[in-house]
Request: fold
Amino acid sequence: MDQARSTISKIFNGEPRSYTRFNLTQNMEGDNSQVEMKLSSDMDEEVGGNGVGEHLNHTAPNGPYVARRPGRTPKNICFMAATTLLIFIIGYLIGYLVHGKKPFPSPCPTSQTDIGDNEIIHETGAAPLMDWDDVKALLANKLAPSNFEAAFSEFASNDHKAGSFGDEALANKVMRRFKEYGMLSWNDEHFVKIQEGPPAPGFNQVSFKGKEERPSGFLSYSATGKQTGAVLYAYYGQTSDFRLLKNKNLNMTGRVILVRAGKISFAEKVANAASMNAAAVLIYPDPDDYPIGLDTELYGHVHLGSGDPYTPGFPSFNHTQFPPLQSSGLPEILAQTITGRTAENILSQLGGEPVPSEWGGVSKLGDENDVITVEVNNIMTQKNINNVFGVIKGYVDPDRYVVIGAQRDAWGPGFAKSTVGTSILVELARCISEMVKEDGFKPRRSIVFASWSGGEYGNIGATEWLEGYLSSLHMKAFSYINLDGVVAGQNGFKASASPMMYSLIESTLKEVKVPNYPAVTLYEQNAKASWETNVMEPMQVDNPAYPFLTFAGVPSASFRLSSTSDYLYYGTMLDTRKNLDSITSSQTPQMTVAAAQFAGHMALRLVHDHLLRLNVQKYENIIRAKVLDINRKVKTVQRMRPDSLPQALTVQWLITASGSYNRASRNLKTEIENSDLEDIEMCRIINDRIMRVEKSLLSPYVSPTSKPFRHILIGSGSHTLTGLLEHLEDLRVSNPTADANLFREQFALATWTIQGCANALAGDIWALDNEV
Reply:
C-alpha cells in the first residue's frame, strides 16, 4: 500500500496539473456557470497569444513562463490513467475485505431528512416543502371545539375596556400563552387619549317637549357642550339621504339630525351631518333593523379616522414631543346615541313634510317647531394600552411576515367582537407552533400574532403600531388577516379584502368545510352564480383591516361566518355568549373551528408556497374601470360645462398609465412561468415586486396627518379616483366648492401614482415602461 501511495503521489503531485476549474459570477440567466479550462501549451499554441487566450488565462502578461515537461504524450497519459484506475480498484477491494459490510457513518447527519426507505433529501438552505394537503391535515387535527370551549372560559370577561385592569389581565394571559408555546413574544405600550362617558354623578341628556332622557350609551370623541335646535329626520344619514333632503330645499343649518344606526359608520353619519352645518346628531337603533329591545343602549365612536386622534400620523409613545395636533376626522358637532324607545317618542311628535316614500316607517321629517336640546358631557382621559405579540419565525425569509390580529377590548362582554377572535388567535398560535416543533412543518416566512387594545375607539392599538413602525414594516409585512367578529352566524360567509387577496379567499373557501356538513365546502354553500357577488363586500372605514390596507399599504382581509341578518349586538352590552349561541344554534365552538381553519389556511398558504398568493392582475380591471368612468365623466363635463373644464384636458395620460400597469403585471406573470422557483433569490425578488404593488397605490402626495387613508383605489379623500369622480360631478353641477385647477392637479398626481405603481411592479430600472 505504501508503494501505491507513492505512485499516486508522483502522478498527481509530481508535475503541474493540465486542467483547473473556477466559478464565474452569475450570468444573465441567473445560473452559476462552471467553466473548465485547458492550460497546456497545446491551448497556448491554438490561441497564439491573442486576446482571447490571454483573457482566459489568469496569468499576468509579464508573469513567469511555465515550460511543458517532456514526455507528456497521449500514450504516456493513457498509461498513467490506466495505472491509477488499477490502483484504485485494488485499494477499494482491500478496504471492503477489511471493513466487511459495516455501514459508513453519515458525514453530515444534521443536514439530511429521511423521507422514505431509500430516498434522502439533502437540504441546501431552503426549507423542505411539506405537501400542502399534509399541512391542512395537521392544522385540522389540532383544532377542536373542546379547545375553544377552554379558550372561551379563559378569555371571556365582562369588563375589559381599553386600558382597564380587565384589559391588562387579558393581555397577560395572551403573553403567557405565547411564551408557553415557545414563541418569541413582546409587548408594545402606548399612551393614548380616549373619550369616555361622564362619570357619576354627571350625565349626558336629551330633552324634547318637556321629557328628559339621560342615556348611558355614548359616542366617544363627540364634541362636548349643549345645543338646541329643531329635529330633522335623515334616515340612515348617508350622503344620498342628505342630498335628497337638500333637493327639498330644507334648511339644515343648526338642526339636530336624527338618524338610524346601520348602513354606514357612526363617524360617517356625523361627518355627513356636519357638512350640512347641523348642530348635533342623534343615532338610534330602529326596531325594524335592531329587534333587540327598545331600551338597548348603543356605544361607539365618531372619529372619522383610525388611531389616537390627538397624534395623527405618528405614534402615541410616552416620550414623543410633538406639538399639539388633532385629527381632521374629529367632529366639531355634538353626537349622542339614544334608545329606540326615546326615538319613538320623538318621531311620533314630529311635524313638517312627509318623509320620502322610499324611506318608509316614519311619517314626518320634522319642522322648526320640533325643538330639542342635546347635552354631551363626555370626559377625555389618558390610557395606557398594550399590544401583545408573538412570532413564529420562517426558515427561508424570516424577515417577511404575515400578521394575524384580534381586538382584545370591548365595551361590555364583547364575546363575538373580541373573545372569539382572541381565542382563535391563541389557538392558531398553539397549533402552528406545535406543527413546527413536533411535526416538521417549516414555514418559509414568519407569522406574527397580534393582540390589540383600543379597538372599540377606532382601532387605536393597531393603528398606533402601524404609525410607530411603518418604516420597519415597509417591504416586511406582506399581509394582514383580521379575526374580529369572525363568527356572526352559521349559514353564510362574507369577506372584505384587498383585491390582491381575492384569489386566496376563493381557494380557501374551496378547502374549508361547512360545520356539521363535511361533504360541503364554504364555497359550495355560498358561491352560487358568482362567488364574488355573493361573498365579497367593500371594505368600510370602520373595518379593523382598513388602516392596514389604506394607511400602510398591506394587503388585508376580514371575514365572518354570517347569517341572513347581521349580528345585531356589536356596540351593546348584549354581546354575550348566550346571544351568539342563539344566532349559531348553540354551535359557536364548531363555527369557531371553521373560522380558525379559514384564517389558518390563508396564513399558512402565504408562508408555505414559494411565491406569495397575492394576485397583482386583479387590479387591472379595477384600474381600467375607474379610468373609463373618469374618461366618460370628463367628456360629459367638457360638453355640458365647457367653461369649467378646458377642452385641452385629455385623459390619455391616465389611460397610458393604466396600460403600463397591465403590461407590468402580465410581464411578471410570464417571468414567473419561466422562473426556477427552487431558486431562493429569484423567489425573493419576485415576491418583493408583488409586495410593492399595494404600497405603491398609496398616494405619496398627501399627508397622513390630514388624509391617512392614502390608497387611491380603496382609501378616502380627494386624492382617490373616487374623489376625482366626485369632483367632476361638482364641476358638472357648478358646485361652488369645485375648482378646475385643483382637479387638474389631483388628476395629474393620481395618474402618476398609478404609473409609479406600474414602475414598482416592473422591477429593475431597465425594465420600466416610460411611455408616459
Observations:
- Residues 132-188+387-608 form a domain with the Aminopeptidase fold (CATH 3.40.630.10).
- Residues 1-72, 97-125 have pLDDT under 50 and may be disordered.
- The CA atoms of residues 246 and 444 lie 57 Å apart.
- The chain has four domains: 2-99, 132-188+387-608, 205-377, 618-767.
